[in-house]
């Protein structure tokens, strides 16, 4: 992608003197479009609706810094030391209490703390996927998950969604189609709540059916749920893991409910899988950062963390409203979008003839950035879609960004 202000990349690969040394699996490792965008999109004059950076609204920085100071003063020799690859025991207990809010009844031994849920995705793919194995994933799906699947040379087969999330009938058809080719499906990767990037939520009445389809075909479910507590009406949905503990691996994270920079997430795995995950974690990092785990643990114990989640929800709801009203006001006829009930993202379909990937450099010139839909598919779809992240900018900037975006689309229609 040629973006203003970026050095030309052409030829860079052929100049790499190490080219013949790389493992075959690195062929699937390409910079995500969003990463390529990051440098330009972070310029102050550009309204970035591209990245999914959380808005750290009203985090109690003073009391947090006092807490961290006290932690180091009183417990520093533990906090600054290696720990177990499994994670700090008291945090794993607290994580079980957090998951109980979505109906999960888990034992702390089955929780493995990770460096963000991104590491969980990497570990789960690493322990389950051989090259060529199939992973089913919603279409569109989370770009970071697609990156992990590509890194382990798994083949992604997308399953289309509608306004109520994954469509069970489409899942059945996808399973049958893959089975006909004789390939092995290792798991279904799904983001049931406030989907990234589609913004939709899997209807509660579909959840049992999705689980039943997977169970009856011997397919594991990987449930990725970083946004579950960020429903704008305070509604939480029953986790898939809550009804089928033996066939669901659940990924959780404090990135969106507390602080992404601490990089603390977790995997809750069926008991039998847990040991392999701990070994995979050990070989990746030895152990997750002890200090960060203890910070999260103290925060959960001493702060009104649920009140903070409510503050986040309100900030995101206000931003969602700004995005939706600006879309209604400015977007040209022929565009459609959904109204998310939680999370960070609106998924927009632009009028026919507009290619969101080709349009992106021109949008950046017009001082607005977004994520084009193609990055969220492993199979090249998505050129008429784009993702707007309303999580980070102020409502005014969001409105201005959407106005600029609509103008770029209108110009594009006239080309
Ligand atoms: N899964 C989904 C669906 C996400 O949107 C993200 C972050 N944007 C992650 C996983 C990774 O989050 P983290 O590693 O910060 O926990």
From TrEMBL:
CDD domains: AAT_like (cd00609). Pfam families: Aminotran_1_2. It comes from the Bacteria. Keywords: Aminotransferase, Pyridoxal phosphate, Transferase. Residues 78-405 form the Aminotransferase class I/classII large domain. GO terms for molecular function: transaminase activity. InterPro entries: Aminotransferase_I/II_large, Class-I_PLP-dep_aminotransf, PyrdxlP-dep_Trfase, PyrdxlP-dep_Trfase_major, PyrdxlP-dep_Trfase_small. The keyword Transferase applies. Its cofactor is pyridoxal 5'-phosphate. Gene3D superfamilies: Aspartate Aminotransferase, domain 1 (3.90.1150.10), Type I PLP-dependent aspartate aminotransferase-like (Major domain) (3.40.640.10). The keyword Transferase applies. PANTHER family: AMINOTRANSFERASE (PTHR42790), KYNURENINE_ALPHA-AMINOADIPATE AMINOTRANSFERASE, MITOCHONDRIAL (PTHR42790:SF19). This is PLP-dependent aminotransferase family protein. It comes from Saccharothrix xinjiangensis.
């Amino acid at each position: 992608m040629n973006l203003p202000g970026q050095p030309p990349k052409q030829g860079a690969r052929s100049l790499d003197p190490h080219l013949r040394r790389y493992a075959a699996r690195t062929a699937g490792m390409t910079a995500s479009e969003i990463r390529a965008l990051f440098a330009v999109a972070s310029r102050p004059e550009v309204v970035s609706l591209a990245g999914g950076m959380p808005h750290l609204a009203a985090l109690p920085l003073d009391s947090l810094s006092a807490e961290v100071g006290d932690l180091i003063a009183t417990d520093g020799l533990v906090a600054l030391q290696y720990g177990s690859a499994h994670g700090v025991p008291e945090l794993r207990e607290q994580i079980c209490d957090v998951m109980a809010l979505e109906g999960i009844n888990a034992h702390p031994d089955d929780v493995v703390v990770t460096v963000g849920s991104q590491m969980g995705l990497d570990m789960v793919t690493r322990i389950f996927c051989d090259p060529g194995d199939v992973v089913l994933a919603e279409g569109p799906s989370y770009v970071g998950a697609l990156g992990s699947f590509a890194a382990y040379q798994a083949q992604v087969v997308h399953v289309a969604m509608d306004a109520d999330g994954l469509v069970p009938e489409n899942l059945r058809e996808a399973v049958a189609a893959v089975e006909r080719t004789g390939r092995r499906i290792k798991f279904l990767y799904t983001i049931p709540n406030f989907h990234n990037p589609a913004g939709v939520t899997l209807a509660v009445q579909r959840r049992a059916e999705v689980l039943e389809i997977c169970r009856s075909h011997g397919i594991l479910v990987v449930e990725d749920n970083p946004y579950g507590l960020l429903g704008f009406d305070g509604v939480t949905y029953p986790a898939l893991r809550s009804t089928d503990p033996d066939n669901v691996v659940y990924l959780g994270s404090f990135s969106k409910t507390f602080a992404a920079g601490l990089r603390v997430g977790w995997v809750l795995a069926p008991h039998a899988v847990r040991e392999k995950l701990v070994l995979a974690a050990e070989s990746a990092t030895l152990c997750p950062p002890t200090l960060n785990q203890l910070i999260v643990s103290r925060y959960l114990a001493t702060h009104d963390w649920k009140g903070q989640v409510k503050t986040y929800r309100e900030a995101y709801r206000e931003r969602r409203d700004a995005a939706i009203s600006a879309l209604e006001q400015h977007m040209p006829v022929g565009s459609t979008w959904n109204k998310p009930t939680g999370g960070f993202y609106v998924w927009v379909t632009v009028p026919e003839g507009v290619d969101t990937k080709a349009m992106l450099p021109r949008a950046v010139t017009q001082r607005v950035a977004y994520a084009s839909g193609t990055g969220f598919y492993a199979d090249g779809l998505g050129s008429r879609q784009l993702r707007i992240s309303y999580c980070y900018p102020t409502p005014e900037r969001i409105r201005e960004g959407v106005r600029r975006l609509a103008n770029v689309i209108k110009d594009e229609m006239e080309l």
